[in-house]
Amino acid sequence: MKRSVLRLTGLATAALVMAGGLAACSSGGGSGDSDTLRVTLVNHVWTDIIKKKIPEFEKQTGIKVEVAQFGEDQLSDQYNVKLNAGTDDIDVMMYRPLQEGKLFAKNGYMADLTDKVASNADWNWSDFQEGPVNSTTYDGKVVGVPIITEQEVLYYRKDLLKAAGLEVPKTMDDLLAAAEKIKNDNPGVAGFVARTGKSAAVTQFSSFLYSYGGDFTDADGNASINTPEAKAAYATYGKLIHDFGPANVSTDMSWSEAMAIFTQGGAAFYTEADSLYKNATDPSNSKVSDTVGFAPLPAGPAGSKAYNVPSWALGVNESSSHQDNAWKFIEWATSQDMTLEIQQAGVPGARTSVWDDPDGISTYPTDLAAAIAASTKTGVGHDRPLVIKVPEAREIVGEPIVVAITGGDSAASADSANKAFQTLLDDENK
């Protein structure tokens, strides 16, 4: 079987990822012991919490756990080398379904967990949200369990809306009108800000695309970013920034630059991942912390369809000789009680029951929790094209975004981009 090499790139959850280099810890047991489990994790708040709990798992099961923990680039290097070689040194693997999930599954790195997720009614696979589950499923087989999720929501300034006599926008037309009025009434303040970089903007644009009734590919897997729905989404995203965005806005902003404009009082509305909300509500970082509100993404013609994605998941190495014990670990780490505890610590999980539990949202702003709840019910399980060559695909489908932001012919750009994207898809399907 042909093995591919990958390089990981960042997600909005970079705000939650802990900086650091290679680290490792051992909870006992040798790698040759059949009761020893090798778990590979990334530096992340989720990982920090799980590591502290591992002695409980060991006591309950008699299984010794060895944790190998890496920064994102180092994790990429480990997977490049070891999975490509068919190693059995990894049992449980923390991975990103939207970035490398398709590659891993297609190359046979991921064990089929379909029977295992259905084997324990108390653990309750049906409790996991549909969007994230779709992204941890490949060719009808479950290959991962989502552990961390993200949704796109609308950040807004309550003070500016009140001064303008406006309600929180519920539709894209409402958002366009409100952004125009606030910019006209408040010199120096943009009506709207968002990511503008060709690749970086793709994830946040995706929710506009879905809400207008489009997607990156159609039901047959063909490129579909030049449909009337897609062209309308490109035009709206571009208009919001070109007409009502910051003056002289650059076309290379990722979340950090767009967030800075919003938190320094430079914009009324901002669409972004919910996982970054503390950047806007922390008084030490945000000049508008006391007036920030959150709402579901305004609805387009197809409704409000923000992405609801798993930024990280747990899977089992197909080459592992300890797959049953690996599943026991995943089952324990993704239980309802564990998900609740980790979500209370600020890491959004994928279980519906935890979001429905008042304790599960007790540490979140009330309006943000409500916005997330709405997004999880209608959310789409991907925020970029589901392909192997993710970076290349993002550059292609992101080109019409930049054209729209700069006031160009985004419809013509979408036609050109669709041809290039179809070529990429054809190459991958050879």
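[next item in queue]
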Amino acid sequence: MPRTHHLRVHPSADRLARTDQLAWAIAEVAADPVPVPDDVVDMVVNRVIDNAAVTAASLTRSPVVAARAQAVAHPHAASSARHGSTVSGLAPDVRVSPEWAAWANGVAVRELDYHDTFLAADYSHPADNIPPLVAVAQHVGRSGADLVRAIATGYEIQVDLVRAISLHAHKIDHVAHLGPSVAAGLGTLLGLAPDVTFQAVGQALHTTTATRQSRKGEISSWKAYAPAFAGKVAIEAVDRAMRGEGAPSPIYEGEDGVVAWMLDGPDASYDVPLPGPGEPKTAILDTYTKEHSAEYQSQALIDLARRLHRERPDLADPANVASIVLHTSHHTHHVIGSGANDPQKYDPTASRETLDHSIPYIVAVALQDGRWHHVDSYASSRAARPDTVELWRKITTTEDPAWTARYHSTDPAQKAFGGRLEITTTSGEVVVEEIAVADAHPLGARPFARPQYVEKFRTLATDVLGEAEVARFLDVAQRLPSLGPDELAGLTLVAPAAVLDAVRSPGGLF
């Protein structure tokens, strides 16, 4: 049976027992050796392929090149017990320390904002759990089945925390839920006792609580680095905990802890849903990936805009449009809409990361182009096109309580991340169109299944890696549940040297 962990603040005088703390409950879930259901195994494979797709497309982007250079500066000498970890793009015999592999590979996964998502009380990209878990599995010689179990745990814990605890309401970056989930996944992978994972979860949470300024104003490459940093420090936390070192406790419930001073305060309480003993970890099935390289709340609106491009091409011309208002959820309005009050969201010289978080820009380009491309749609020349800028600045957002309610609904049939476009033309016509979920969503017009994940990988990877490497990786990834430890090194991408050598990173300390 599922369990609900009631989380509240306790004064130090309570001497709250470890076994009554949320970090301990998370550790117990990690230690439960429950089998992984077949549909969860299948989805884990899908998300490994999905991560590889966006990794291939980002291998030559500056943040990824820099992170890879940092990782390579921390080589690992293989031994009989520890093997080091692979780095995306490089040959499997190039091995680095696992926390640095998690760093480099995590940046590559996150750079394009193009992998999976889960949105509830907070938001997340649960596939950020995969790079650190793969790195450690390679390092310690675990099997593919071990890795699948660990990934199922990582997803479960992150999704359960996201269902219950809002970070963004207090301007805390969402990676504060990722550090604990990676630590829990590593607990499963390594077969750690709950008291060890408990300490690692506490350390990982303590070191990954940071402000949301990484996703506000002039958004920089740190948006991609932040989740990789969470994975890196979670590995380091597990290493320390395995050596007997402790964490701040109680990390969530303490009177100077996370809930009391970073979240809803000393009188706050939350009900965190967790699997009960013997209950399978299935949260990955509630997550969804992206067809388009943009913030998830824009996915459905891109689909709606490209449909309008076909049906009403006149609306792509700013001369025909007086205004476009998107009625949507509180989160979409305040984070990627005009409710953020960020002038950068209307700036044609803004960074790619900023444009990715501007729904007015995204709607304008998708309406004009009838598509969304992970490179072309963000090109500086594309953003600066005069007719685009004119149309873009006619687009605003407003919060609609009905869409906010659907955003927060716990009913999968009602939960939605779309909105209603009201377009007023210069002739006085009002065009009203709405969409609830993206086409690729499980309830959308064209839900993603294995063929779509494979096609996304082929589309993004073939020109970078070549057909032979694409075929090789797909073979390894789809055999993940049966891979032996000696085969897990193949769960990486190898790019031609000419591709990687085309981009150089400035030198640093390492």
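[queue empty]
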